[in-house]
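Entry:
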Amino acid sequence: MSRKPAHTADSLLDAAAKLAATDGAAAVTMSAVASAAGAPSGSVYYRFPDRSALLAALWLRTLDRFQSGFLAALRIDPPQQAVIQAAHHVTDWSLRNPTDAAVLLAGPDALGSAQWRAESHEAAATRQRGLDDAVGELADRLGYRDRSDRERLALLIIDLPYAAVRRCARAANADLAHTAEAVDRIVRDAMAGAPPAQHLPEPDADAGRR
């Protein structure tokens, strides 16, 4: 029976994420990750050939972790409830995953995307296209044809909750749980008059996890 590797790619990326969340992306070096994970430097270089590959992998993993629940929320029926649940997912996921949320907020530029290999850029672009397509499909289900309606949708499910999370991350005394409730109310109020959504239920905290 082969032995399970002591230091997997995920365990090394966990260490990298904690460094990025605590000290910023600049703190994520190969030697710092090795030290934080309690791994020899060779283990890090075995999984990731260089720092840019490590940072690209960290970004892509973070996107996958966030988007799995977000994309599921976008496909909920009725579509008005999908809007509410998608916005809720942004704040709820950030509340439950503060380390990953810090990486997401940092963004690809902070993670050295200018030095990433072409395949990493394409992988990130593929994920973005999938997200854009899913948002477009939700807009179609809502009957949104005008550009202003589609922009309103993006504001409700992406820009508003994302800005709320960012504001909380920058304020030492901020309460993301209360902010999440405020975002839920704003989005519910915005969708309350959009037929056929009447008496819309509260966001399902578990919907994005299924």
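Confidence is low (pLDDT under 50) at residues 196-200.
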